[in-house]
Amino acid sequence: MKLPAFLAVVPFLLAACGGNGGDATPSSNLQSAETAVVSQQSAVAPVVAVPAQATVVQAAPAQPPSTQAPTTTPIQDAAPASASPAPSNPALVEYYGDSIVWGWMPNTDWGRVDSPAPAAFAADTGLNVQNMGSPGRLAENALAGDSVYPAWTQQMAQSKATHVIIEYHSHDTVTNTTARVRQLIQIAKANGKKVIVETIGPGNHPGELSYDQITQAQRDAAAAENVPVIDQTAYLKQYLASTGKGVWDICGDGLHPNPDVYVMKGHYAATQFASMQ
């Protein structure tokens, strides 16, 4: 065999005999590694593709913001379907009378107690109660009107009260007291008020009438007009009898109740009012 032909055959003989085997393994390993890299890249490719798809979704053009005002009602303005309607005419009590309703502090010059009877009444009942008392105001003043309130007809026409408690009276005669209180009741009822008469209570009142006479006139007026009575006179007379006290013990000046007695009257009025409902 010629030398060039022999040299051409030598590589094939070496391969067949396993010669230079260290070259075969690295070559094989390199190919395997390259194959693994390709396989890993192929495996990773789908994972990389997911964010790419998500990016496309996020990059989709958004709709332009609407320039129209929302047509839905705000949640806070919408009443629940099961909500009960609010009462159209919640109770409002107007408490009318003289200085004893107003809350005159005994032996003071225009002093007022911290808690007149209407205030204690309101605390017990939880109602909206307006103290309409005015020192020195009699039934005839209420009917005619004065610098404090307009004439009773106008006062009742413009009043929003659902209930009116009347402690007004007169000092001249029983007949006049009865007639005037009846007028007050009639006018208040004609304006849709629920009327309650409250008796004056023990005290040394000025004028021709004793507190018992004034009380009887108030009771008579209420009976004639068929309205209920909060009888403070009967309540406090019973209290005096059970404690052995007199008028001057509960009224520091003989007429206006002491602070604790005002509160007692308010509590009693509240219990009586509750029993009338």
Description:
This protein is of the alpha/beta class and 277 residues long. 51% of the residues lie in helices and 8% in strands. Helix 4 crosses helix 11 (259-276) and helix 7 (174-190) packs parallel to helix 8. The chain has a domain at 92-276: 3-Layer(aba) Sandwich (Rossmann fold). It starts with a helix and ends with a helix. The protein has a five-stranded parallel beta sheet, with helices on both faces. Mean pLDDT is 78; it is low at 1-89. It has helices at 3-17, 24-58, 99-102, 117-125, 139-144, 152-158, 174-190, 211-225, 232-243, 247-250, 259-276, and strands at residues 92-97, 128-133, 163-166, 194-198, 229-230. It contains eleven helices and five strands; from the N terminus they run H-H-E-H-H-E-H-H-E-H-E-H-E-H-H-H. Strand 3 (163-166), helix 7 and strand 4 form a beta-alpha-beta unit.
